[in-house]
Amino acid sequence: MRVNREKIGSASKAIRTGDVLTITLERRVVVLEVAGLGTRRGPAPEAQLLYKDLTPPPAPRADVPSAPAQRDPGSGRPTKRDRRRMDAFHSGLDDPE
């Protein structure tokens, strides 16, 4: 987390009106400007009035649809029919069909 472009080491850093907070969340960066300080812990709509979101819009992604996952015939888990044939083969019996 950064306050006015300076990396802070502790969460107890005092902030003032006009400070710019830069927060890294997972794979995105959120930039907020403090518009006011609350006197109490209140509801979300009230808290949203205390900051301005300066986060730049995300870069446009090239939405290329990926090909559906295809499996080669015979790969993966055997079907019930395949298991019956294998059991018959291992026990020395003829084809059950």
From TrEMBL:
GO terms for MF: RNA binding
Stretches the record annotates as Disordered: 38-97
Gene3D superfamilies attached to this UniProt entry: RNA-binding S4 domain (3.10.290.10)
InterPro entries according to UniProt: S4_RNA-bd_sf
Protein name (Swiss-Prot/TrEMBL): RNA-binding S4 domain-containing protein
